[in-house]
Amino acid sequence: MGSSTGRHLLCLASPACLLFAAAVLLAMPGLTAARTRRYSFNVTMATVTRLCVTKSVPTVNGQFPGPKLVVREGDTLVIRVTNNINNNVTFHWHGIRQVRSGWADGPAYITQCPIRSGGSYVYRFTVTGQRGTLWWHAHFSWLRATLYGPLVILPPRGVAYPFPKPHREVPLLLGEWFNADPEAVIKQALQTGGGPNVSDAYTFNGLPGPTYNCSSSNDTFKLRVRPGKTYLLRLINAALNDELFFGVANHTLMVVQADASYVKPFAATALVISPGQTMDVLLTAAANNPPSRSFAIAVAPYTNTVGTFDNTTAVAVLEYYGAATSAAALRSLPLPSLPAYNDTGAVANFSASFRSLASAQYPARVPRTVDRHFFFAVGLGADPCQSPVNGTCQGPNNTRFAASMNNVSFVMPRTSLLQAHYQRRYNGVLAANFPAAPRTPFNYTGTPPNNTFVTHGTRVVPLSFNTTVEVVLQDTSILGAESHPLHLHGYDFYVVGTGFGNYDASNDTAKYNLVDPVQRNTISVPTAGWVAIRFVADNPGWLPALYLYLHLKREFL
């Protein structure tokens, strides 16, 4: 592995490839007028009160949620992070491609060692060929429960949106609030082998709203609008574990962008957004005499888990200027009609509406041929009960839950993978033998196999530069079928196909959309189903491929 050249995705490319990437970057129009924008992140503890619980939480610059970063396509961002809390920390710029800047991607022990207490680190990267809504968050343990914020990428000056210009743009971060310390929650789960305790509330820009006990009107996010005006809502699902339905009572939303990629606009009254995903939607206020001056904005969970989950509804309020919604009125606002928590059909129908803009200015460069095919079976397995708490483990049949792909559960290295490559020290750190398909095929969405134990390793997939890749992600029912949000660092990909049941290459490939599939960086594998994605491996570096989220409270990659 150390002697190979031109390797990529989870291996650094050769110098020739890096020079080629540099030449392409320098040839891109508009970069000569780009700016360098500098931010300082002072990570410190701050006192926050929600649901009558006052506690000290990690924040950036004392803000919860954290500060909004605003750049233009082609700009360079320089963020100096100073860590003044007791925990180690890193930051990930979720969705940024990190062309030639893998050191800045942020996942701990993959592209960097964590920033220790009292230490600092400078992230420097250029925003190349991207515009729209992304976000940033801590990428160490569960610190992103409070360490997160929006990253807004505006088009270059003089370049208009491919949709009507909004009157105002509003970032709307959907999060979770834990009365307990999230670090204690995940620590306990790792000790017991069971699922983590669920959150106590969902939040809009850090505020839970009036549906929870001991939550006042001051804890409610209010979006004030003027009649007839159009607003761009930059939605970000910053929740740790939950896919969320979203809606605004008596208002239709127009979806125009997903994961910072333009889509063919389509109307919807209820949206679903997975952890890590972003979505830009247009909301037009009623021009004359709306039936009310205040309307509920609501989020509620979508899940098929067999375990516990936060089955609550959080509410914000849309207020027409001149309205003053009392605390009592807030609690009695009619809610938007959202699907049931387990309505997989509604999720599938909404997801099927996404199509890339695929215009001359914003083409869909979908790979038509594929060099490397991968089939990843994802889901939950088990580990034997070791170091039990009170004599038992809390997974099924006295085991420990373990997430896996192709029955391999990731082992966090002690050395950053990018550092190991830079120093050419691979032994004892990683192995380049991640399986391209399950070693033993089985009925993935049917009766589970008798042996549910997983294997462990830090195993990677090396790819040659410019390889065209197809990955089929197959949900499994080993310990219960459920949807799984996954994020690909350093890339966007095209979602060329999806379906329920077991993937069948002989029949399903013919149904692929290779004309205008949606372009994303985060996707949910459907419950008891599959999704196929394609991308070109043209971004050299060690980046986590298909990073499985800490989803549904029990997947600990």
TrEMBL record:
GO molecular function, one term: hydroquinone:oxygen oxidoreductase activity
Compartments where located: Secreted, Extracellular space, Apoplast
Any one GO CC term of the record: apoplast
Entry keyword Metal-binding: yes
Cofactor(s) needed: Cu cation
Chain ranges of the Plastocyanin-like domain: 43-156, 169-323, 435-541
Family under the similarity heading: Belongs to the multicopper oxidase family.
Protein name: Laccase
